[in-house]
Amino acid sequence: MAIAPPSLRPLPKSLFPKYPCFSRGFPFRPSPSLHLASQSFRFTVRASSAVAVEPDLRSQQNQTVETELFSCPVCYDPLIRKGPPGLNLDAIYRSGFKCKKCNKSYSSKDVYLDLTVTAGLRSYTEVKPVRTELFRSPLVSFLYERGWRQNFNLSGFPGADEEFRMAQEYFKPVEGGTLVDVSCGSGLFSRKFAKSGTYSGVIALDFSENMLRQCNDFIKQDASVSASNIALVRADVSRLPFSSGSIDAVHAGAALHCWPSPSNAFAEISRILRSGGVFVGSTFLRYTSSTPWLIRPFRERVMQSYNYLTEEEIEELCTNSGLTNYSKKGIQKPAWLEGIFSQKFFVGCSYHESAKKNEKKVFCLDCCISICPHCVPSHGFHRLLQVRRYVYHDVLRLEDVQKLIDCSNVQAYTINSAKVVFIKKRAQNRQFKGAGNYCTSCDRSLQEPFIHCSLGCKVDYMLEHCKDLSPFLRKCNTLRLSPDFLIPQDIGEDGMAKISDDQDMATSIINRRKGIPHRSPLG
């Protein structure tokens, strides 16, 4: 988090992998604004400078005014606006903007307002680095919210809903102000911010024309968002078209590693933030303090195509840009871990109510929901984890869960020749104190050398003492069900499993625990 010289105050901490905060004009010190996470992180900044939008903009319909919000990307002088007032799609589309000093005009001939330095040029084209040009592709723009962004969960991001909740906590000091969502992509968070009604205006800003078009399509599909104060602006993060000290909040979700020059971007964000403004962002880290030294050179080599930074580099960039109150926080619970603790298993599936064997006993790590065997075919390329039952409690096979998180010191039990661990804490009717170890969370008696009776107990213990789960999380791109898991093959048009008579007979034979009992012969 960072804050500008006038009116400083510490910001709140939070965010997935979780992230840091800064603000303008003060030396760095831990505070609740900027957020970082181990493999991914988020940060918040706070700065201010007392510039506001001209109040008369709301009074007249077609007038020419000098606005203190949008500025010329060349000289930074405020732009002259001609057209209806307001910070919404319709008003911006019908308005024209002009810089007195440069005598250059800007308009939104497309669905967005183009405020780049190259706006209006016909012959000249500028090619950005590959990491930037990639997101200008129509295909990537289309796929971004249709699977691309969801895969960030594999690297520790907690999921869009949780990231939004954390950002909202950081932005509480600036509620009611103007928010700029830098590198907004297809507007995943821009729409959430606008729909919340927390801000007087939300500006979705990106360099990719196709991302902004995709954002506009999503906005049109939601009447509540399209009626809110949201504007689409194309701009370069290293040349933000806003007056100095005119913005209350800046958000950059999973974006820092894509910026051609993070140092210029940080300086620009510091410039446009008012005193007390807040900056929240997230990104992937090159490595963390917990990454083994032997692995660091390898990670640096394979990540050269993007500007992956370290926690120390980000803090240094903040200090150099005049941002203060920097703070960071590591990953708490990734989305899949939250899901497996909250979902119910071994209950009937609502989608296959009339099907046989419709108990939910599979967890999809990519969708973070519990599913039944009939749902498995529709999650064919997802990571799936089978949940088992042991003494009336849900358990996971140790071999499977070890691929996702370190389960050392968690007591395992053996069922059907496989070692399993309990998912949640188990209620204990009476306290028993004897020889041996005890669970760190619930005081349950354990065998040596174990100190956790369940996965939930270990997670709670690590969050309480280490404040960061990232050193214990493991990257797993594929996770399949065991070969002996029975998946219904015949799926009818209504989505229900239809098992033939032969299959019913085979199933009944398989499920028969013993053969027909025979009386022992008499002497």
Secondary structure topology:
Blueprint: E1 18-23, E2 40-46, E3 63-71, E4 78-83, H1 89-93, E5 96-99, E6 104-107, E7 113-114, H2 130-133, H3 138-148, H4 160-170, E8 178-182, H5 188-196, E9 201-206, H6 209-220, H7 223-226, E10 230-234, E11 247-252, H8 262-272, E12 273-284, H9 296-302, H10 311-321, E13 327-329, H11 335-342, E14 362-364, E15 369-371, E16 384-390, E17 393-397, H12 398-401, E18 413-415, E19 418-422, E20 437-438, E21 445-446, H13 455-465, H14 501-511
Parallel strand pairs: 1-2, 7-10, 8-9, 8-11, 9-10, 11-12
Antiparallel strand pairs: 1-13, 2-12, 3-4, 4-5, 5-6, 14-15, 14-16, 16-17, 17-19, 18-19, 20-21
What does this 3D model show about the protein?
This protein is an alpha/beta fold and 523 residues long. The strands form 4 sheets. The protein has a 9-stranded mixed beta sheet. The chain has 2 domains: 18-51 and 125-329, Vaccinia Virus protein VP39 (Rossmann fold); 336-472, no CATH class. The protein is built from 14 helices and 21 strands.
What is the mean predicted local confidence, pLDDT? 77
Beta-strand content estimate: 15-25%
Task: Please give the CATH architecture of the largest domain.
Answer: 3-Layer(aba) Sandwich
User: What is the CATH level 1 assignment of the largest domain?
Assistant: Alpha Beta
CATH superfamily of the largest domain: Vaccinia Virus protein VP39
Q: What is the 3D form?
A: elongated
Total number of beta strands: 21
> DSSP helix count?
14
